Design the sequence.
């Protein structure tokens, strides 16, 4: 299920793409009931003119399996783009409802198209708005009991607000729940002196350093290589 022939804008090591293609061919083969559907979601996202920044298939499945391991009933995604990761989570976890926040109305429109095409409109809700505007409303709903706590949060939005999103979601997450922040390693630029003024690097370093001081979570960064890039995710477990 490699996206090699769908998105081709990345500079990468051919071995990374080959490994993803080989492993997915066995662990998520074409015979899998959702294989074609998930590829169609990526194709529609591309054809609708959305940027080539969807989570890559291996990571999307990894996140979906994390939800399965945690028996997550309610997941939150901040920055859904075309809904690809949310659809992965929903199709792999029939008992999970995903609330997805998207700031761009056009992206949200495409996400809803994809969600409907995937047949999971009843379990994936897209909220249009800036994350820092939407999250306080969700906090109020959780605090009042109108909305259950989340067991899983995936942050893949504007990188300068990584820590703001992270910190704001902690009170809404059940003990033992996970937060994942994408695009943390940034080709290793988080430790390159010449990139310390890059907004993405600033946002990544801030969430790493602040999460290390946050007593309510325990966190780690995982470096990754893939068909899209050399990057990584921060994973935190709420105590």
Sequence:
């Amino acid at each position: 299920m490699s996206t090699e022939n769908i998105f081709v804008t990345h500079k990468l090591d051919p071995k990374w793409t080959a490994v993803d293609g080989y492993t997915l061919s066995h662990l998520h083969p074409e015979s899998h009931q959702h294989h074609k559907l998930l590829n169609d979601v990526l194709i529609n996202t591309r054809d609708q003119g959305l940027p080539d920044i969807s989570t890559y298939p291996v990571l999307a499945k990894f996140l979906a399996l994390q939800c399965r391991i945690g028996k997550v009933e309610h997941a939150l995604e901040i920055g859904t783009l075309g809904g690809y990761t949310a659809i992965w989570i929903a199709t792999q976890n029939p008992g999970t409802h995903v609330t997805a926040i998207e700031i761009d109305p056009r992206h949200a429109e495409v996400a809803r198209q994809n969600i409907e095409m995937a047949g999971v409109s009843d379990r994936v809700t897209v909220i249009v708005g800036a994350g820092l505007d939407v999250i306080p409303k969700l906090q109020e709903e959780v605090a009042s009991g109108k909305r259950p706590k989340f067991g899983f949060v995936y942050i893949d939005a504007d990188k300068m607000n990584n820590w703001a999103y992270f910190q704001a979601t902690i009170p809404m997450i059940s003990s033992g729940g996970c937060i994942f922040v994408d695009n943390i390693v940034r080709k290793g630029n988080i430790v390159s002196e010449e990139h310390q003024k890059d907004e993405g690097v600033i946002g990544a370093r801030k969430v790493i350093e602040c999460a290390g001081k946050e007593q309510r979570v325990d966190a780690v960064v995982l470096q990754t290589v893939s068909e899209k890039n050399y990057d990584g995710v921060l994973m935190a477990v709420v105590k």
Notes: The radius of gyration is 17 Å. The mean pLDDT is 95.
